[in-house]
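#struct-pred

JT: dropping the chains for the assembly here, can someone run the whole complex?
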Amino acid sequence: MSGTTAYGAFGGSAALKEALLRQAEADWLEPTPDSAPAEDGARAWALRADLPPAVVELLLLSQEGGVAVETIRSALAGIEPGAKLEAVPHAWLLWAWEQGDGLPLTPLKDHMGATEYSAMAESVIALHRRVIAGDQVERSEWRRVRTASAGDHPRGHPVHVLLAASWDYQTAPGTVVDVVEAWRESLASHRFDEIGHDAAASEALWSNIHVRQTAYYESVLGPAPKEGDESEAALAWWKDTGPLSEKFFESYKDPIYLRWQEAREKFEADKQALAAVGLAALVRLIRQA
Amino acid sequence: MSDLKPTTDATFAVDVLQSAKPVIVDFTAEWCGPCKGLKPVLRDLANEYGEEIAFVAVDADSNPELCKQYEIRSLPTLMFFQGGEMRERMHPGRRSEMSQQIERLLGAGA
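RK: done, full complex below.
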């Protein structure tokens, strides 16, 4: 199976489109705290609607990133019956690689760093370009690229976005979930790298917070229970720390923590921007298809 | 696109231990959130590697004997079986990360 299965959105029927949009509304097109069932429902719906599941997964990811359900609804409504969208998720990756519309770490091709990573990423992009051009890319070719790129690459490096994409989207439509997750992870690493906050710094920060937090709880609630103590008194002590936690962090002004918090807020903003800008690009590509 | 084939205390020996192909066993439960998150990943991996590897799921709530035997302490737990033996506990992750583990295990067993 290759990435060239021909889809005709909603079987080319406006009436079917209307019915399926109503069904999407009822089945999965509402925010849910548990994304997995929504993902399951969306994938099954995509197949019924003759849409590439990867396109619908990308829409869901935008929703998860904070885009309003109304925007997703309007993106779905904008798909013309009969539109052939099988190349769209591949074109979306190419957009991230070559453009990115001002998102941090874009275009991704400019952020590979080592030549080795650029070469790996290019080999993945080359297969996506072939799918966009209508070529039949065999699963074995994706697998060969994946195997050749295997290795212990630094966590949070943007090359992971491309490595996550080294799959036939027909066989593994959830690949786009990994692509977006890897991109988010790169954005987080980028923000924490900016303040020089690495894994060791993170461990030191949270270990320090744990010590101070426990001291604060003990000053209010008395001595903390011993580790492994599951008595009622111990459980009550831990339960009482709940309301104190917020107070602790409100008054915790350690400069390293404040910088960490600022980096985290920047990352959250990046994540939302990725959802909004990524969706705008997706909608554009759907219209051009 | 279907869910993984369920296996039980009663059928595990045939489905897994006597399987001609390597088997990835997913110990899971209906109430387990991370298990639900892993489901689409395993489904995609089953689509990709289904010719070489069997993928089965064990409902931890209904199959206590297997959970005891394989010391399941958290869910989801993934295990790679080959030749009737548990070869490795796998780390749930992205498709590409899991694919690396699979390729290594297949290579090691070749």
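JT: nice. The domain at 5-105 of chain B is CATH 3.40.30.10 (Glutaredoxin). The beta strands of chain B are 5-7, 23-28, 54-59, 77-82, 85-90.
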